[in-house]
Specification:
Oligomer: single chain
Number of helices: 12
Order of helices and strands: HHHHHHHHHHHH
Structural class: mainly alpha
Number of strands: 0
Helix content: over 70%
Strand content: under 5%
Shape: elongated
Largest sheet: none
Radius of gyration: 27 Å
Length: 351
């Protein structure tokens, strides 16, 4: 990564602040312009470097995320094959799972190393209004400072994709959760086949009770996320006949149609682009909701499959899980419908 921190240093800020305060006003117009131009050039160069670093970080972290997905998807296929065959895992399968485990378990440290490297190469002064003194003394114009802020904002926007609440981070968290679910079932199958039925049953019972106990909270969280999406769309497009996740699709498209038709009369291209960008962000939020749902469905499937090997002892658990399965199917239909409707809305808003 490029070392932007070596350019925009505390010493550089101290030096330029002093020049802006005690020297700048004494210089002729030509020298003043040269100083101001160089200050702006240096700042833009620094934030360009930081933006490049942010892009590099996002690319490298995306590669880790893709490796995690490959690990989880591969483990799921191995599990499916193990369920069907009823046979213990082979050496090749175990070897693959070991490598997959290294990928998942090493992901946090790998991402941490990248973000630490990014931070180390980013100027600390940039977190502050380092240009305030030159602006106050007239050595920088507001327009110049606005350019600096815009350049810095670009790097921040890129960094947001892998920040603590960024989509990359949240996707990786879901992969870790899915890995835990898959590992639990694989370990259960191994214990079952090794004759450790009592230990396996105790572990399965604990997992099922935890899953059932967490369902109320999970449903509330997902419902809140879906409702937030619909309410935000309603806020953007005007009143909707419905903000309920199940019924909002037709209302959304109808409202957007009115908005698009009115564009030629009163709405600008900028307004249409803002609408489309907003909807793209909502599509991203829905993607995260869909990922959380997939994790929940995977855990439900793992528990359901495990119960099949419990014989009559599994019947009480079947009754416990059945209503949750119906709810998950209902949520899946809702989320799939939302994704389809928002995709259509994005296309409509771009017309």
């Amino acid at each position: 990564m490029k070392n932007a921190a070596a350019i925009l240093t505390k010493a550089w800020v101290t030096k330029t602040d002093k020049e802006a305060t005690t020297e700048w006003a004494k210089w002729d117009k030509s020298r003043q312009k040269k100083w101001s131009d160089e200050y702006l050039k240096t700042s833009l160069e620094v934030w360009g470097m930081v933006a490049d670093n942010a892009t590099e970080s996002a690319t490298r972290i995306t590669a880790i995320k893709n490796s995690m997905k490959l690990a989880v998807d591969g483990a799921e296929k191995i599990l499916e094959a193990s369920r069907k065959s009823g046979q213990p895992l082979g050496d090749a399968q175990r070897s693959w799972l070991d490598k997959a485990a290294d990928t998942i378990e090493g992901s946090k440290a790998a991402v941490g190393a990248i973000t630490e490297e990014f931070s180390r190469n980013s100027p600390f002064a940039g977190r502050l209004g380092y240009y305030d003194t030159p602006l106050e003394k007239g050595a920088l114009t507001k327009a110049a400072v606005d350019k600096i802020k815009a350049a810095r904002a670009k790097s921040i926007d890129i960094g947001d994709t892998y920040g603590k609440a960024g989509p990359l981070t949240l996707r990786m968290e879901e992969y870790r959760k899915r890995w835990t679910v898959l590992q639990a079932e694989l370990q259960g199958l191994e214990k079952q086949r090794a004759g450790q039925a009592q230990e396996w049953a105790a572990s399965l019972t604990k997992r099922i009770h935890a899953f059932v106990a967490g369902d109320v909270e999970w449903q509330a969280d997902l419902q809140f996320a879906l409702k937030k999406v619909t309410e935000n769309i309603g806020y953007l497009t005007g009143h909707l006949d419905s903000t309920e996740p199940k019924n909002f699709g037709a209302a959304l498209l109808k409202s957007l149609k009115v908005k698009v038709d009115a564009k030629a009369k009163a709405k600008s291209e900028k307004d249409a682009k803002t609408t489309q960008n907003f909807l793209v962000r909502l599509a991203g939020a829905l993607k995260l909701s869909k990922g959380k749902l997939k994790t929940r469905v995977m855990e439900f499937k793992a528990l359901s499959e495990s119960i099949k090997g419990a014989g009559p002892h599994g019947e009480p658990f079947v009754k416990m899980l059945a209503p949750i399965g119906l709810k998950l199917a209902e949520h899946q239909k809702t989320v799939d419908g939302l994704v389809k409707d928002v995709d259509a809305a994005i296309q409509l808003a771009g017309k």
